């Protein structure tokens, strides 16, 4: 009888352990039929997200109804782009044909292009820009290609941001002290075989003239960036903890974003200003995201979140800082959670974060498997709540 009871206990413990392992694997996306996401977009109203993974699976995510639909299996992983103020998104297939498709599955428009490593299109679909894997940037497609930048590749990490008036290109940066070079005169369309790296790093372009407005300095290494919804600020960060923003109407006004522990470094005094730091709880102090930045996303028209790199051996460092445009001091903290781990485990994953400032929705990829995490931000309470974990 004793041996029988012992065996039952062993079987019971093993069964419980198997359930726990299975649950952990499911919660962390190991059972998903799609792979890790490489690019992600969200509709302006926050109702739909669309993603592409490493295997070329194009997935539509219906957020209110919590439904997942695989729409294609042949997509270019870097090509997801949701068109502003619509339920239409843009992607490229593995034969380099770009498609504009709606959330019902209907193809609205298709056109050929080179293999893109990043592209964007205006709300009225009349202005299309794209970058290739060599970092060259063009307006238009097919026989109507107009070069914007053809000098030395901007970098192995390409962010293209398009607004009503501006284009922002962000690539691998080399640190310089000056805030900006206004009206740079180097020719971005360099016909010579000898290239000059004339606009690597962060560059703001005039959408109408296709000319550079300014080069923005201060970042170093893998860099990500975006333009605020009101087109008044540019925010950038990199893998060397250089997080900053520029006022577009006065680009020499560069603000260094505050560090949750040290405050803001004063370049003149070479000391840290801690005067407006928010006191940290023990949990916040121990689990703060590192200052090495993977992505930014706007949670409202004015508030944005900084998402730091998460190491595999410290998955609980998931507490992120919230800032307001024009103010370099941290406004508050939110916790993105570690189950499942978000896709902040790679500096090349900035395209796996998308947000709807109007709906206060943030969507992230997952570090393991092809799922997404969806969060709802409450501006009044400054709280971020996870509302859907999808696999």
Written description of the protein model:
This protein is mainly β and 391 residues long. Helices cover 8% and strands 40% of the residues. The strands form eight sheets. Strands 13-14-16-17-15 form a five-stranded antiparallel sheet, with no helix packed on it. The termini are far apart. Mean pLDDT is 92; it is low at 20-31. Keywords: Membrane, Repeat, Transmembrane, Transmembrane helix, WD repeat.
Describe what is shown at a glance.
The chain has helices spanning 2-27, 282-287, and strands at 37-42, 48-53, 58-62, 67-72, 81-82, 88-92, 97-102, 107-112, 118-121, 128-131, 137-139, 146-149, 159-162, 166-170, 180-182, 202-206, 212-216, 223-227, 233-238, 244-247, 250-256, 264-266, 271-273, 293-298, 303-308, 319-324, 327-335, 353-356, 361-365, 372-378, 383-390. The protein has 391 residues and is mostly beta strands.
Quaternary assembly? single chain
Radius of gyration: 22 Å
Please report the total strand number as a whole number: 31
Beta percentage is: 35-45%
Provide the structure class: mainly beta
Integer average pLDDT: 92
- The low-confidence parts are 20-31
Overall form: globular
What spatial order of strands do you see in the largest sheet? 13-14-16-17-15
